[in-house]
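Input (structure):
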């Protein structure tokens, strides 16, 4: 049940009975910061009081007095200057928890939200010929988590990895391989390719002719030169082997890989279609598109070649034709904000896709505590090095764990550090925080899950879906947990609406804290409350497992 929506209906009915003019969009439902003020609260009486020229507290009381009894609301009260507070029945909260415990029911209800809708998400998108850098970690993690969130909500999800494999830089790489490589092409590694590319730029500082050589080789590549294509394809093959290793470690599986080169043969047709639409103009020999509030985009250069913008227009056209999405999401760094404004506006002008159904999640940077990562002059931070260090820290933290657990903790720690912040904010890479067992971290959630599993291993109650008898005296620690459980569905919904996995990360931390507080103060096994407390443990397990899976983080049975 979408409880907030049901409460809105209750308020609308009450306002209608009182002949108050209100629309659903005006009614904002929130959780009070202080639980003593109820489970939900609204300030609608304070808004309407201005229109009605009446005391807001008095109007709030009138609204409350006209509210009919509900199956799930225990009581409704007025607080402060006119807030209306709703208190949910404990029986109802437990029934909601039972749904979560019975995972198939919970997931079936969730899947109704996106039935019949398709979402395409563009994420990860590393560049070939470079080891997978830390800079692409955010796009990969956030993109996969958003994919998972929409999937559980019933959307048909299409993940598309838009690999960077085309452009002048690959002409430079071919030139570098031809000039300095001593190995057989089949023996080259991803590190060799990176070193050759760095060497090209270093040498080009004193030998300006090298830049022209790079352009010449890319021109040959565009024309289908056999040697240029053979070297370029080998670079792609080497890179994809490297990327797949990283994706396997991260537990990432992207549906399609379509590099920029995939769209080359479609550019002529797309360019003609955009020109024929009448939205372009000539400018110093180039073909551009102008916008009211955004700098112009270049569709075609003065020498007749296409641009990165052209390729992205061809990409949208392809996605519309093949998948007919209701929503397209681009999980790409904040430095591309202007580019995607131009792309989205043009797609809307072409009638391909309404602007509001295309979203750019402009993620921030990953920084050290001392400042941002440097990627100049080949000083790239390789993700493999970061993972190796995380593995070392995980071994130090729990040396008795097996390699699978250590790997799950290490990868989970890196991912959670990334996903627990709003995507648009920069992320601080602080090893002590990342690997903490008692802070806001991935290992803390995995540890809480393992603690719950330990309780379930000890109890003799092995099968339990529903609570037949609700305890008469639910204590504060138990109630604090129950009041966290019912928010799970709305948090998943909120994460999808805000395109922010951090909503789920924050919620999971709240559940884990409440469980650990409950665990510290209440014995579970061999107590008269064992049935109920084991049930609370089972629901916590279900939430942590489902939530961590949405974030792409593995649970561990022991830790």
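Output (sequence):
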């Amino acid at each position: 049940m979408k409880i907030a929506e049901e409460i809105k209906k209750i308020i609308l009915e009450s306002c209608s009975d009182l002949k108050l003019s209100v629309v659903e969009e005006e009614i904002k439902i929130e959780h009070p910061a202080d639980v003593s003020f109820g489970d939900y609260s609204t300030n609608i009486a304070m808004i309407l009081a201005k229109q009605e020229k009446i005391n807001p507290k008095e109007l709030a009381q009138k609204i409350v007095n006209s509210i009919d009894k509900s199956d799930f609301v225990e009581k409704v009260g007025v607080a402060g200057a006119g807030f209306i507070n709703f208190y949910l029945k404990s029986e109802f909260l437990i029934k909601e928890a039972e749904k979560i415990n019975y995972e198939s029911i919970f997931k079936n209800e969730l899947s109704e939200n996106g039935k019949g809708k398709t979402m395409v998400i563009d994420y990860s998108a590393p560049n070939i010929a470079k080891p997978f850098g830390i800079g692409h970690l955010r796009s990969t993690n956030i993109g996969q988590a958003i994919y998972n969130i929409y999937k559980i909500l019933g959307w048909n999800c299409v993940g598309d990895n838009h690999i960077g494999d085309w452009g002048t830089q690959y002409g430079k790489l071919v030139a570098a391989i031809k000039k300095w490589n001593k190995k057989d092409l089949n023996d080259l590694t991803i590190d060799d390719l990176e070193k050759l590319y760095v060497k090209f730029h270093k040498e080009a500082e004193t030998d300006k002719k090298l830049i022209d050589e790079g352009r010449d080789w890319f021109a040959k590549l565009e024309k289908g030169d056999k040697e240029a294509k053979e070297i370029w394809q080998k670079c792609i093959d080497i890179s994809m082997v490297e990327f797949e290793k990283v994706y396997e470690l991260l537990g990432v599986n992207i549906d399609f890989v379509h590099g920029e080169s995939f769209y080359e043969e479609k550019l002529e047709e797309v360019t003609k279609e955009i020109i024929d639409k009448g939205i372009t103009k000539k400018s110093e020999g180039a073909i551009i598109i102008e916008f009211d509030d955004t700098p112009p985009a270049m569709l075609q250069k003065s020498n007749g070649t296409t641009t990165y913008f052209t390729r992205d227009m061809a990409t949208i056209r392809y996605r519309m034709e093949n998948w007919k999405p209701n929503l397209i999401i681009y999980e790409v760094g904040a430095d591309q904000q202007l580019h995607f404004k131009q792309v989205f506006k043009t797609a809307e002008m072409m009638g391909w896709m309404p602007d509001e159904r295309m979203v750019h999640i402009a993620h921030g940077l990953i920084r050290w505590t001392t400042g941002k990562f440097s990627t100049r002059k080949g000083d790239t931070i390789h993700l493999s090095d970061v993972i190796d260090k995380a593995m070392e820290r995980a071994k130090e933290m729990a040396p008795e764990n097996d390699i699978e657990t250590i790997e799950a903790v290490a990868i989970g720690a890196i991912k959670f550090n990334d996903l627990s912040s709003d995507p648009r904010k920069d992320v601080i890479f602080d090893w002590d925080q990342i690997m903490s067992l008692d802070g806001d971290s991935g290992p803390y959630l995995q540890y809480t899950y393992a603690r719950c599993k330990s309780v379930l291993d000890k109890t003799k109650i092995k099968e339990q879906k529903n609570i037949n008898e609700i305890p008469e005296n639910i204590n504060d620690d138990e109630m604090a947990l129950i009041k966290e459980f019912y928010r799970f569905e709305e948090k998943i919904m909120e994460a999808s609406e805000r395109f922010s996995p951090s909503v789920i990360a924050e919620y999971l931390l709240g559940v884990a804290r409440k469980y650990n507080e409950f665990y510290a103060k209440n014995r579970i096994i061999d107590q008269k409350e064992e049935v109920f407390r084991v049930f609370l443990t089972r629901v916590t397990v279900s939430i942590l497992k489902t939530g961590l899976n949405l974030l792409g983080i593995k649970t561990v049975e022991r830790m």
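Notes: The longest helix spans residues 226-250. The CA atoms of residues 90 and 472 lie 10 Å apart.
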